[in-house]
Amino acid sequence: MQQDVFGPVLPILTVNDVDEAIAFINKKEKPLCVYAYSTNSKCLILVLMQVISRLMSETSSGSFCSNDCILQSLMVALPLGGVGACGMGSFHGRYSFDAFSHSKACLLRGTRFECITYLRYPPYEDRNLSLMTWACTLSQKSQGWCQIM
Questions:
Q1: What average pLDDT values come out for the chain (149 residues) when binned by 10 residues?
Q2: From start to end of 15-121, where are the E strands?
Q3: Per the database record, which ranges form the Aldehyde dehydrogenase domain (predicted)?
């Protein structure tokens, strides 16, 4: 496999052990998703969870899915997105809305204490410092000098 496959093709690579799989994934660019398939018999469930846990923690990809390749993309609660060359960000359901929305930061400051806040500008004097300390105590007692929306 030379590059990422974007299409209705699922390349299947077999490896001898989890170390070989991790080395293969890490030597290439970060994939959009890592799909790991392993035996799921009851006597091997602990080994399966160790393999899956290692693959999730020792590789980096946009998403991860074990023993399935369709269900993950159908779940709106899970984001779809990449890292690195596959792109940045998350899309799908609420993640799409958040990705294409802008949260506007607004700070509304009143001018009630402008007669005191001028002290924050140079030249700085000891008297200014003591007045600013006093003004901070006023701010804590009232509702403050600004409102965060």
A1: 66 84 90 78 65 88 84 79 73 74 73 70 76 70 51
A2: 33-36, 63-66, 107-109
A3: 1-105
